[in-house]
């Protein structure tokens, strides 16, 4: 119950933050700077077609599942009480999401009050990054890389597909729709919450992580940012000890940064030019803009 209340507050805060349209100016400049030269990289995301789901999860259901997962995440860590920062991340995230094949999802981006370094996507387009992650971003394009990776998980329906795979036996292989049709809504939601907890502590398939990295780079480039923001973050992580508590969950739920860089360099090979994209601004400058 507490988690759901927090979630309602979060939705309200984020809905209010969506009105800062004047602050899209910097994004328009970013796209002018680079969009024309993406070239052959532009169709990478198109090639990675989402698997057609056999469980009958349509888009409204996907959003509903995502809301349950978001409640799980917000139950563990609340939203950070910093409206300008929330507005900034939400504005940037929505711009990136608008460049994807699923621009019309109810995309919402929030910052969790957590010193750990992490980012989470839920089905249907609710995405969270931690305060600890934001503190460690050196350029805006690095944050763009992280957000685009999470957006790619949603566009490619990785969580929904994982729910359908045999690995997630908590559903007993039963389709969510037939579960609900039998009138077991409360039980269904309980199982969903458990499934969410499992997904965010064990992580997705390694293959899904590599796919989100390469699709994330495409999204960043389409949006006019330096596509090398994500590789830069992975390089930083490479130098980071997995024993550090602030990073342990990330290392447990993702392939090693070295493996991700190797996979990413194959998919980026020759397709991207960092000079075409914007590295964005520093957080100090950006927070001044969003505090006005
Ligand atoms: Zn991921």
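Q: What amino acid sequence fits the structure above?
A:
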């Amino acid at each position: 119950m507490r988690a759901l209340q927090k979630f309602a507050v979060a939705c309200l805060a984020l809905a209010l933050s969506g009105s800062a349209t004047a602050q899209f100016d910097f994004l328009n400049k970013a796209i002018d700077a680079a969009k024309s030269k993406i070239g052959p990289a532009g169709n990478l995301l198109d090639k990675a077609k989402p698997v057609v789901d056999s469980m009958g999860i349509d888009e409204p259901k996907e959003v509903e599942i995502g809301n349950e997962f978001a409640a799980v995440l917000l139950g563990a860590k609340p939203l950070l009480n910093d409206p300008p920062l929330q507005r900034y991340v939400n504005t940037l995230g929505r711009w990136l999401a608008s460049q994807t094949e699923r621009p019309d999802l109810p995309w919402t981006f929030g910052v969790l009050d957590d010193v750990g370094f992490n980012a989470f996507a839920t089905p249907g387009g609710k995405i969270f990054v931690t305060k600890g992650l934001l503190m460690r971003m050196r350029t805006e394009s690095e944050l763009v890389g992280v957000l685009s990776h999470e957006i790619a998980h949603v566009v490619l329906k990785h969580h929904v597909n994982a729910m359908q795979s045999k690995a997630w036996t908590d559903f007993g292989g039963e389709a969510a729709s037939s579960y609900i049709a039998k009138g077991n809504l409360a039980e269904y939601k309980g199982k969903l919450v458990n499934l969410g907890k499992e997904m965010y502590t064990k992580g997705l398939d390694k293959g899904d992580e590599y796919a989100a990295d390469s699709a994330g780079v495409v999204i960043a480039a389409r949006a006019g940012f330096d596509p090398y923001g994500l590789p830069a973050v992975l390089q930083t992580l490479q130098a980071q000890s997995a024993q550090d508590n602030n990073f342990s969950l990330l290392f447990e739920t993702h392939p090693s940064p070295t493996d991700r860089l190797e996979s990413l360099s194959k998919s980026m090979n020759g397709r991207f030019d960092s000079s075409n994209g914007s590295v964005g601004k520093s957080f100090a400058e950006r927070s001044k803009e969003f505090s006005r």
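Q: And what stands out in the fold?
A: The first strand starts at residue 108 and ends at 112.
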